[in-house]
Amino acid sequence: MKAIGLHQYLPIDKEESLADLNIDRPTPGPRDLLVSIKAIAVNPVDTKVRAPKATPVTETTPKILGWDAAGEVVAVGSEVKNFAEGDRVFYAGDITRPGCNSEFQLVDERIVGKMPRTQDFQASAALPLTSITAWEALFDRLGISPEGKDSGKTILIVGGAGGVGSIAIQLASTLAKLNVIATASRTKSSMWVKEMGARHVVNHRNPLDQELKDIGFENVDYILCLNNTDQHFPAMASAIKPQGKICTIVENTAPLEIGLLKAKSATFVWEFMFTRAMFQTEDMEQQGVLLNRIAELIDRETLVTTVGETIEPINATNLRLAHRQLETGSTIGKIVLAGWE
Fold it and tell me: Which domain holds residue 62?
């Protein structure tokens, strides 16, 4: 089968950083679905995994990246309960297994949802990783009520125009009924976050606590950081309310001055959407449950898909282009690739 992968971890301007390959089609394990991939989306995790390592590494077996897919089930494992051949599905997958940059992929049924009925493969592929991340960050990590019981409280979403930010703004405003303040630094991205549901926009190129004060907010109840934890942590600590909560999805490169939160009894928590699959947690199936909930919300037009750009077909040249665009840090919404040559 066709696939796109790597043997060495290289800068994206090197042709060998992502190459067209032919590899064996896999066979499902007991809980696996074998999915014929129709569309994929690119995320920052792809570029981070692909990036050069401090010590050079050579993979004897090609490394296949990709953690956002939509496709059709073509085979199921012996213990699969919730899916059948022909089902249209979407999912983010498991970072410990080969990714979706291939014609066929194995994925555990517990982390798979059935595609929105009203959307095509491209629109659906844009949703899984960012929806899971945003849902878990808002409702599991920050403890916000998805039924609107925290209505009227304020949340600052740092990096609102990206993939996770685009869906997080929607979930926070439509389900949680929060007063959403999103960050953006350009006119186009500011317009985008307002379309997603943000009431206010501030510039993350400036200190966020001062930006909030300039629009009348001394502090906020919640902060979701999707951009540069190191840079924004002091301002977030200043801007969070006493007993407020901060969640970030971006790893820090230096120790954070966590003591800044002590006097406020503020919470700091991480969100990593691969945790459930990596550790086979008891609630692993909740990712499939929440993807089905996302599909329902899309079909009811409570949420909208977040495709920013679609590139065709799926091949190494176009995937390198998508990685290159993502590494600029200025993409809006999701980059999707569709259709194999």
Answer: 2-127+276-338
**What radius of gyration, in Å, describes the C-alpha atoms of the chain?**
20
Q: Are residues 117 and 23 both part of a single domain?
A: yes
Q: What is the pTM of this model?
A: 0.96
Residues 6 or more apart whose Cβ sits within 8 Å of residue 98:
26, 64, 105, 106
Helix axes 128-135, 163-170, angle to 10 degrees: 50
Q: CA–CA separation, 201 vs 189, rounded Å?
A: 10
Question: Do 140 and 266 fall within a single domain?
Answer: yes
Distance CA 231, CA 258 (A): 14
Taking 50 as the pLDDT cut, the residues of the chain under it are none
**Cα separation of 165 and 87, whole Å?**
29
| Alpha-carbon separation of residue 316 from 3, 20, 146, 272, 323 (angstroms) | 9, 5, 39, 27, 10
pLDDT of amino acid 53: 94
The overall average pLDDT reported for the chain is 97
Q: Which two tokens stand for residue 109?
A: 């049924």
How high is the pLDDT of residue 341?
A: 84
Helices 286-299 and 128-135, interaxial angle, to 10°? 110
Which of 244, 270, 296 terminates a domain? The answer is: 270
Residue 209 DSSP SS3: helix
Residues 123 and 135 in one domain: no
Count of structural domains within the chain: 2
Same-domain pairing of 321 and 214: no
Predicted pLDDT of residue 329: 85
